């Protein structure tokens, strides 16, 4: 292969960028609070994802340390135990995780495609509740489409476990990786732009050190054949003759948490303004454009210098600067920097409760506002 930019290489670059961007776009909308219609009179009737884990600034500081510990541990395990055993053990782990993540992602996709109202019209065929002091604290339910989606979503994991080829299928690996990434973005929510800036800055230094300072990250990434990365063939015919292009799952999930925060901030501003029309998304659009620009820059530098590049070296500054510039241009920098997503959720719930009380006073049916439960609806 020549050193120039061939059609095969361009195809791989575009494929990686498109896959990563679509994944972040879908994952971001999956973090928005679910709309509540007039028929939703109890927490058991709401379609919600699992309770998210909100990352604070204190949590963000620990990520580079935890990441370095995990990376170093994998490097030593491969060195002393051999990559075959480590690949086998971790393949089993990721396949088992895929038994949850792929069906959940398929369910989320179906609910998004059909719309929440139409999805809620499907019959519940299974429901499990946990009570505490006569109050529902956990409700797990399954609607009729899930009878097909859940078994279908389990197929990739079983094939991945029992596939005995020299390398794992790229398609299977990507399905598992993207579903795991989607669930990670749904469950991990940073609470503010300050936390996001700390997280991206810390992992910026982490990425630079482990790629440029040592050979550890490149060694681990090339030794492990696991769904911790997305792969794209360097061929317009999807042939593996010239190898594959790879992008670590962390280079999707970590910036994705920041992009999804931008979308939730746009949604919060729209909700507080109580506008009926579709909400504007200036922060979200800016962050998505920044992500695509940063990832494209990574590909260009990698192609020019023929060397692996730490993607967060370009993605972290791009995402942070997109927020700073957009907020500054709109005259909202101080307000946006001080905004807290956790407090915003509480504020929005309070607004909903006030509306319910108002409806009750006017003769409507009040919605219970003092019962909080975790609801999983498949």
What is the count of structural domains?
A: 1
Helix content: 55-70%
Assembly state of the chains shown: single chain
Question: How many whole angstroms does the radius of gyration measure?
Answer: 22 Å
Structural class: mainly alpha
Largest β sheet strand count, sense and barrel closure = 3 strands, mixed
The total beta strand count reads 7
Which strands sit side by side, in order, in the main sheet?
2-3-7
* Count of separate DSSP helical elements: 13
- Shape descriptor reads globular
Secondary structure: elements and pairs:
Blueprint: H1 7-29, E1 53-55, H2 57-81, H3 83-114, H4 116-120, E2 124-132, E3 135-143, H5 146-162, H6 170-187, E4 188-190, H7 193-213, H8 216-223, E5 229-233, E6 244-248, H9 250-273, H10 282-305, H11 312-329, H12 333-338, H13 341-361, E7 374-377
Parallel strand pairs: 1-4, 3-7
Antiparallel strand pairs: 2-3, 5-6
